[in-house]
Amino acid sequence: MSSENSVGLVTPQRVRFATPLTLKSGAVLPGFELAYETYGTLNAERSNAVLVCHALAGSHHVAGFYADDPENIGWWDNLVGPGKPLDTDKFFVIGVNNLGGCYGSTGPLSIRPETGKRYGADFPLITVEDWVAAQARLADHLGIDTWAAVLGGSLGGMQALEWSLQFPDRIRHAMVIASAPKLSAQNIAFNEVARQAIISDPDFHGGYYAEHGVLPTRGLRLARMVGHITYLSDSQMAEKFGRQLRHGEHKFSYDVDFEIESYLRYQGNKFAAFFDANTYLMMTKALDYFDPAYAYAGHLPSALARARARFFVASFSTDWRFAPARSREIVFALLDNRLRVVYAEIDCDAGHDSFLLDDQHYHALLRAYLGNIAV
Amino acid sequence: MTEHERRVKAEQRERFDFAVIANWLQPGEHVLDLGCGDGRLLRYLDETRDVTGYGVEIDPESVLACICNGVDVIQMNIESGLLGFEDHSFDRAIISQALQTMHTTERILSEMLRVADEAVVSFPNFAYRSNRAAIAAGHMPVSEDLPYDWFDTPNVRFFTIVDFEDLCARLGIEIRERLAFDEAGREVADDPNLNGSLAFYRLGRKS
Questions:
Q1: Which terminus, N or C, of chain A has the lesser number of Cβ atoms within 10 Å?
Q2: pLDDT tens for residues B164-179?
Q3: Mutation target vs B (from A335, A339, A360, A367; most B CBs, 10 A cutoff)
């Protein structure tokens, strides 16, 4: 980690919104808190703000590190910093933990004011639309009328797209990376396997595990293992692990034989140690429900007709979770509306997770596009 | 010629190519530029004709250059067609000195006239006088409009004005206008297949 281009020491902040938020499901959240971080400085014209939206397991900690936890480096630190593609000398960058998250924003782990107990399973289902509505309140709070750009990968890209639809006049550039306009049946199927892994864990207790003093770690671990398979490409897995054996020989047991098993168990354990199962369930549902074309008889061009932003859309050649064809659906729907868009299909062997890597060409594209945004 | 002179000459020539195409466009048209390279033609058309539209390009470095130039570019391979582009969604589809670098000539021409009302095509004429002379002398031609050695040329289709017009006839494509220029950029009227180095066409479907 080169600290010279790091935003350096960062401090998370929190803001409370007292006005109730009516969610897409019809449920009402009486008020909520959002955890967020900022990097760089808002200019006098307030024209240089960029919102970075996180994906399934991300947080508001996008860049930099904490004084009391210097090893905890932001999840998109390779992108955000002085002189980096998303240059904090130019832009005022905001990372936010989404509503329902488990990193400090109001979510299933929060204490419900009416009961004095954790929400747990009673926390309402939050959609991408709700996240954007909550993020808009944060923008208001920070005095940001219009984002120079909203960007994100995967589920984060869906939020960038949703911003362009829900608040067409508050976003100048939408950067939608390794994303899709809606989940496919296969995508939903993987999510359902992940959910069933959690829900069928005996320690889940219908989502009220906190009250039982346990955690459904086995389910969460399985859910993450399944997810991880979809984040990597077949070729990358073959290259990284192949059929390498952990103990140099076949053990004829159900313990770890192959390195890939070890890797998945490690990733599963790591994740299950800190992530909240109810949040994970909710996030996967938010993914499943996202479908801006749903209200337009499935016709995406009609759904995107409202958008006014300029678009940067990018996909990765080996991403089979949200394959390039899914990004092209967005691109052609934008073309049908004669909206401005650049689309890059990046050759990268790391599958869906490519969007988090600092592939040279990928970062050059981001640097070029962001560099041309007037502030 | 110094490197600077060469560059100035290339830029003058490029502007001349661009101007020929720009002259055929109405202000404010919506265009698709296939094989758009670094997007300079689209930028020129935007500046001179206020056109909107997109470039299509397969080469990653060219896509990056388009983004640097502020040109809207779609990265895709057009050899297999223009799947995803709606019928007649553009006023014009342009392919400027790139048709000879693609394999699926017929498909590309047909697709251009599917997605746009009119196609604009320019290409180097392989039957140009000096090219014939080069072949007669036993060498593949290298010229102003064919600036590559045979072993590193991006060109994969070698055709002449006469060949191209035969193909258009076979595909039922109407030639609405043709311009041919010699290496000095002078318009050629007499025997363009012999005297024209670079050819420009406006193409449509017979109604």
A1: N
A2: 999 999 999 999 999 9
A3: A335
CA distance B65 to chain A (A): 9
Choose the closest CB to A335 out of B54, B60, B66. Answer: B54
Per-residue pLDDT tens over the stretch A318-331:
999 999 999 999 99
The CATH homologous superfamily of the domain defined by A13-182+290-372: Alpha/Beta hydrolase fold, catalytic domain (3.40.50.1820)
Task: List CB contacts (< 8 A) between B52 and chain A.
Answer: 338
- DSSP state string for B135-173: HHTTS----SSS-S-TTS--------HHHHHHHHHHTTE
Domains parsed from chain B with CATH numbers: 3-205 (3.40.50.150)
Q: What ipTM was reported for this prediction?
A: 0.94
Supply A48's token pair. 């240089």
Kindly identify which residue of chain B lies nearest to residue A346, measuring between CA atoms: B60
Residues A32 and A133: their CA atoms lie apart, in Å, by: 12
| Interface contact A368-B74, CB threshold 8 A | no
- Range list for CATH 1.10.1740.110 in chain A: 187-204+212-280
CA distance B112 to B96: 13
Tell me if the domain spanning A187-204+212-280 has CATH number 1.10.3720.10.
no
Closest Cβ–Cβ partner in B30, B63, B89 for A344: B63
> Tell me, what amino acid is at B2?
T
Q: Which amino acid is at A10?
A: V
